[in-house]
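User: Fold this; tokens only.

Assistant: Input:
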Amino acid sequence: MRRAGILLALLWLTACGAPPANSVRFNLAADPANLNPLFGRQDSASVEQQLARLSFEPFIDLDAHGKPVPELLAQIPTRRNGGISRSGRTIVYHLRKGVRWSDGVPVTSADVLFTLHAILDPRNPVRSHEGYDLIDRAYARGPYTVVFHLKRAWAPAVQTYFSYGFTPQFVLPAHVLRKEEPLARAPFDAAPLVGDGPYEFVRWRRGDSLTYRANPSYWRGKPKIEYLHVAVIPDPNTNLVMLEAGRLDWNLIAPVQEAALRGKRGIRYRVVPTAVVAGIALNTARAPLRDVRVRRALAMSIDRGGISRKITLGAYPVTNMLQPQFSWAYDPSVKEPGYDPQAADALFDAAGWRRGRNGMRYKDGEELSLDYVQFPESATGVRVATVVQAELRLRGVNVRLKSVSNAQMYAPASLGGILRSGKFDMAYVVWTMGADPDDSSIVGCHGASNYMRFCSARVDALERRALASTSQNERKRLYARIATIVARRVPAIFLFNADYIYAYRTRLHGFDPNAFLPTWNAYDWTVKE
């Protein structure tokens, strides 16, 4: 696999020649399925979100230090500035004046309302309506003011609508898309030629590459980098070779790759605390994982601390809940079952899974055998799978490893997506959380990313309270209670909250990824040869 990846890299380098002047090159771990942000899919690398952020502006972004920054908005709505009503049910958004689509048409409240209706239109296969379906009225107060009225107060609203929600959305150009309905088959989906972000879409060679050019109509001014060249290279070893050879300007690397690059001239690093939480989803709809004793025993069989130390070299600290460790909702007192092989053996025995003569576990003549799915685009994930398989074998559990692409892992069930169709027992999953600590999409009974099929009436009740509360302290306590229940029931074994390592060439300046995307400030990138 590594030799094939390196050969591919060498062929690619030979074909590409020297980097074009005044351009930046980077790679994606997978080919996007769609370039219309309306239909964006969640995956381990946030591929479609990385691209969408080049061409579209959110209401609110977060800078590299996690500070909210108004982008498409003139100001962030608060109670103090009159943007949020006392009840929390009315939100007034003031759009930034002077923002234009790349074809020169002003961005107005009509675009916001058009996009909101598109999100909620049942004819559009939008991944999730979460939060947007609480809006019972939306209207404009002139071209630059939009009012949302909610059925009930929803705490994540300001940080989520057209921003970093669990399913990010961006405002779309109404004057373009009205002519292309139905939107699910619009030419815009493959060629979003009009945007309001720093870069304009130019070309997409499916499975190969994408090209973007600086938007001269961008509200901050035309970016200094003229072109962005984006290749689709899933293999992490190939990406490493290209970075070393100077054919990439930046790339996300695994901790073990950083060790291999150490001392190389012309390369610098950014270590970024992220909203990425990686773990092993346990399919609770499948026997024997319906038994909480088995799930707890699996957690006790896996040395998560050892994985953090040996595979991530300590760069990805162990975590026990979905909220990132920089979040105000993170509670360090929450603990999933720790590594304890003897206690794991006792729990397996209590659940009726006892060792046979060959050392493996059986119940009613059936071997305890589990299918573990991972994707090769993650060098860390591949190593985790091997360790988990070995550690569970020591406990008498047979783990069969299956490798599928990042795209196949996260695809819709109708397209054979592994997670959504439930075709796994254990799966290495990367969740990118939103700016708000809301985790109902993952542990709520009907959550869009509840790949574990976990359902707890108590958790759902607490989630509703947390989403309705306007008190940060109360929400923190509620999320701690939710996390405690989840840690006890173990629908997922949380491994780590990643501090991502980005390697970049010294010619690139202004590269400063935030907790969600490396492309959030592409408008600020420059190169110096």
